[in-house]
């Protein structure tokens, strides 16, 4: 599903920063993996490259059979929208839209009718145990509920892969466990999932831990 070979990435600047130094990584369909490492080690850069949100300088990235190199913006967006759901530490919900509208938003951009997108959004919220909260604003929800809304939103386009950057970073440990339960359940249903975290308890709940240090993969261990 994901194949990276010898990926290098340097952020240009007065002092160029070589953040990824020859990353080799394969992630098969249906895997639940975590990427762990210290702050600044390159985890988010790697995840953003996987999500075609950022470019790389040298090496090869093949995503679901497509070589991700010199893609046009349109083609990159098309692949991203088709294949990938994103989940972030800070939830990235729109404050003035209720839970249902937030979940339905990706379908709005796809031109799906209001009736259909509300129906599908309610199904996803129901799946997250949030049916009764569909008309609440983010400010009326707990952190765990907000992240479940964000996960519902990431699922609404039926992605093949979920990429989550520190999805439990803003949550207490009990709520983190609940959110990890959701990722595990989605994985049981076949979802390929990559979770960036610095929390060993989160890593321990995935099936493979990839450790990165200063832009280099130092260790991979299966749970
Ligand atoms: N857009 C950018 N421009 C320049 N430097 C960046 C940029 N994004 C991240 N960095 C730097 O690259 C390094 C790796 O960042 P990042 O991938 O965010 O690490 P992590 O997610 O592991 O904390 C850090 O030193 C960070 O400051
Ligand atoms: Mg990061």
Automatic annotation (TrEMBL):
Record protein name field: ABC transporter ATP-binding protein
Q: Which domain of life is it from?
A: Bacteria
Q: Which InterPro entries match?
A: AAA+_ATPase (IPR003593), ABC_transporter-like_ATP-bd (IPR003439), ABC_transporter-like_CS (IPR017871), ABC_transpr_LolD-like (IPR015854), MacB-like_ATP-bd (IPR017911), P-loop_NTPase (IPR027417)
Stored Pfam families: ABC_tran
Q: Outline the extent of the ABC transporter domain.
A: 2-223
A GO molecular-function term, please? Answer: ATP binding
* Record keywords: ATP-binding, Nucleotide-binding, Transport
SUPFAM superfamilies documented for this protein: P-loop containing nucleoside triphosphate hydrolases
